[in-house]
Specification:
Strand content: 25-35%
Helix content: 25-40%
Number of helices: 10
Number of strands: 15
Number of domains: 2
CATH topology of the largest domain: Rossmann fold
Distance between the termini: 31 Å
CATH superfamily of the largest domain: Vaccinia Virus protein VP39
CATH class of the largest domain: Alpha Beta
Strand order of the largest sheet: 2-3-1-4-8-7-5-6
Radius of gyration: 23 Å
CATH architecture of the largest domain: 3-Layer(aba) Sandwich
Length: about 350
């Protein structure tokens, strides 16, 4: 086990840390949460756990090996840096850089550029033959100032947002205004805790945003939609991103033409731009929840988005599911989404 730290996205207060923990659970890693700080999670976990997080997470930014944790005073930081056996982490002849990130105004009295310079000077003093490379370093030492604490270590991975930007709804071949942003769709898939090769079902697949994100992390995917043009458009989007589904069916989610799936991740229709075929969103969701226990195995997970006013957590419990967690995502003045996760007993 190693001490690891993860700089999280500031887009939501609870989803990033929950997504990260869900990935570790899905991949079967044992871990222990050391501390949850603003936009930062500290863990005891195997070093190789970083790889699946870097490959799957939507709301994690930096993964690092923790070498120092202290209060955010210059004296403590510099004393702590000098105590690190730096020769264990960087070799003579390598290039390096020091980068510091400040979260939400923490430790304003400390200059980030000053810290980068001073820590860099210590590293140059302690290990002979190193060179600073600001643009293409072989090693990056990374520090985070948050909640008046300082976490410092070696950067192991960085998750770039550009691929998600390239999959925004308006950039897909088939567009619908109710489509979910790809980062939230990926996060929902991860909250359902699938493993590579698991079959993910979306019974309200629409433009297939959720299925695209599931397919890109190695899951098998299956979707259906009650409207033929939506199922056809969703298939077009899937193939555009290189995801070949097990099937895309024209079917009513109230009467699923499927016997078995490993996980269900879905965003049922609601709002002015969505079609509910004359039914309320509550009726649609309740009818879906009534059959998920017959389709999923024991311990199978469901991740479902719905308006906060629907009270999906209580509905799921009434349908016989275990309510694992809920998160609330503000969309606009009249809509806050509840992202709820359930487990089949």
């Amino acid at each position: 086990m190693s001490k690891l730290f993860f700089l999280l996205s500031g887009e939501h207060p609870t989803l990033p840390a929950s997504e990260l923990r869900a990935i570790l659970e899905a991949e079967g890693y044992r871990f222990r949460v050391l501390e949850t700080l603003t936009q930062l999670l500290r863990l005891d976990a195997p070093l190789d756990a970083v790889q699946p997080i870097a490959g799957r997470a939507a709301l994690t930014r930096i993964c690092g090996l923790e070498l120092l944790y202290c209060n955010s005073s210059l004296q403590e930081i510099m004393r702590g840096v000098r105590s690190i056996p730096l020769e264990d982490y960087v070799e003579p002849g390598e290039t390096f850089v020091v980068r510091i990130r400040r979260v939400r105004g923490s430790a304003r009295s400390l200059s980030r550029t000053m810290l980068e310079r001073k820590i860099g000077e210590v590293i140059l003093e302690e290990v002979n033959g190193l060179r600073v490379d600001l643009f293409h370093p072989e090693k990056t030492f990374f520090g985070v100032l948050t909640d008046e604490k300082f976490v410092f270590g070696l950067k192991l991975a960085e998750i770039q947002p550009k691929p998600f930007v390239n999959r925004m709804p308006h950039k897909k071949p088939f567009f619908h205004p109710a489509a979910m942003p790809p980062k939230l769709a990926r996060c929902m898939v991860n909250l359902a805790r699938p493993r590579r090769g698991d079959l993910i079902l979306d019974p309200f697949c629409g433009t297939a945003g959720i299925l695209i994100e599931a397919g890109l992390i190695g899951c098998r995917v299956l979707g259906f939609d009650v409207k033929r043009h939506m199922a056809a458009g969703g298939l077009r989007n899937l193939l555009y991103y290189g995801v070949k589904p097990e099937g895309m069916l024209v079917a009513d989610a109230r009467k699923p033409p499927i016997l078995r799936a490993d996980r269900i991740v879905t965003d049922p229709p609601y709002g002015r731009s969505a079609s509910t075929l004359g039914l309320t969103t509550r009726e649609i969701v309740w009818r879906m929840l009534s059959w998920v226990g017959d389709v999923l195995p024991e311990g199978g997970m469901v991740c479902l988005a719905s308006p906060k006013t629907l009270g999906i957590g209580e509905l799921g419990v009434a349908a016989g599911l275990e309510h694992v967690e809920s998160h609330f995502v503000y969309v606009h003045g009249s809509l806050t989404r509840e992202i709820a996760v359930f487990r089949c007993g």
